Amino acid sequence: MEAKSRLPNAEFLSQLGNLFKKQQESGTVFLQQKRLTEFDPVENTHNPSATDLSEIQSDVTGQKYALMFRATDGATNKSKKVKISTVVEAEHLDVFWRKYSDVVKAGITGLKKKDKKKAKGKKKKAGKAK
Known about the structure:
Largest sheet: 3 strands, antiparallel
Number of helices: 4
Oligomer: single chain
Radius of gyration: 21 Å
CATH class: Alpha Beta
Distance between the termini: 58 Å
Shape: globular
Number of strands: 3
Mean pLDDT: 77
C-alpha cells in the first residue's frame, strides 16, 4: 500500500485513520508536517539562502505557503512500508487541521499509559535500605 503521489486531503485523512487502526495493537505511526517550498532545479536547492534579501522580504510581505502532511508506519522493510502524504493550501488549513486533529486523537486512544508503580517501588525500596 505504498503511495507514490500525494493524496487528496479527504483520502489522506481516511487512510491515516486506517493506518492508526492497523498499527494500534503493535506498531508505530510517524507523522510529519512541514512548509512546502518549491524546488529550484537550477540551484538544486529547496530553501532560499540566508543572504538572499529578496527571499527574506517575500516572507515579510505575508506570502502564504502550502503545508505538506506525511504519515508512515515505520516498517523497516521498504517494500512493505506504507507512506501517505498530502498538500494543504493555506486557505484550507483551518478546516483540514480540525479534521486532522480529530483523526489523530481517535488514533492515539490505544496508547498504553506509562506504568509509574515500578518507579515508585524502586524509590521506596531504596529508602528502606537506609
